[in-house]
Structures
1.
Amino acid sequence: MGETLESDVKLLQIFLSNSIVPGPAVYEVSLKNNKVVCTCATFTGSRSCKHYKFVKSKMAEYSGEYPLELIPSAPVTAYAQATKSNKDYSQVVTMYGVVEVS
Ligand SMILES: [Zn+2]
């Protein structure tokens, strides 16, 4: 009780999009119940989008595991924190993750 599905959500990648009007917009690709999902409108409509494809191809490149890439100023403890739980991982990506522009 009190446990929500939120803990099953692992934020993988944040995208900054300059290609839409009025833009810019921020989209998040997450692993939710072992499925890759994106928050953009294209994904909502077709279950696929450029962000989704970007993440899926990178996962294929890294044996199914999306690589955690942090900004240079991230504390060294950030990587350890990210391994604790999906919630911690998502928090680390939000604070220190490298943002892709797409
Ligand atoms: Zn998308």
Note: The beta strands are 9-17, 25-32, 35-38, 100-101.
2.
Amino acid sequence: MKTNYNIVYNKYNNSTIDVLSINGKDWKTIIKNQNLEFKINLKNTNRKIIKKIIKNIEKITTKIRKKGETNKKITFYIINYNQNNQNHSDFIKAIEVVFIEKVEDRYNYIYDEVCSFLDNEFTNKKLCEFKDNKCGEKLKTSSEVGCCRHYKNKILGPLNLNGKLVICEYLKDKKCSAKCISCKLYTCDYLKNKGIQFKIKNILLLDIFFNPIQKYIIKYSVFTPKEIIIKKLLKKSIKS
Ligand code: SF4
Ligand code: SF4
């Protein structure tokens, strides 16, 4: 059964417990309450602090689930929240992830959220600068499909430089039908020279919910459909 929670922005009362201040011996007493109210201050937070907050929220939900008390009322009062701050909205999504019990559902949620973010970045900002079907990087080549090409021998991939360069089989009507997160994260030299690069460590949901092996899978599984990537991630889901 799913544990429910509410989020209240930029308000709190003095009896609210700061999530960051909770330590080992406080848990027993806190969890006894039917109404659980927590304060989270996003002012001056860095990745380390955000990780600690999420870890503590994860502890709260795990303890509640273990006791089977999913009818508790949990409220997070988030102060200094700025809806225009990408880090803040990513943090809210991280709370959502913690409350998704099934690992496969979690991974699907994270995967879809990150793909939407990357799609928006590439589309809205027109990062690849396509003109007459040619992107910035491939302007002087024959490619009219950007970097959606690979060498025919997929086992050797880019190492098989003598192979035949073919259009990726997942490219349908000029769109990726595979929803491949690794391809979406890829930035060529053209983009890097413009200062554009998407690193896993900079994307909160990928950074905090996946271990190093899973991050490797996310980075390097290019030309691969979502279903296969999710399966690979599930196989390596033991926390590092
Ligand atoms: S990532 Fe680079 S090579 Fe790929 S489509 Fe964009 S500009 Fe072209
Ligand atoms: S899997 Fe990668 S290379 Fe193939 S169509 Fe999708 S984005 Fe392009």
Note: Residues 79 and 189 are 40 Å apart (CA to CA).
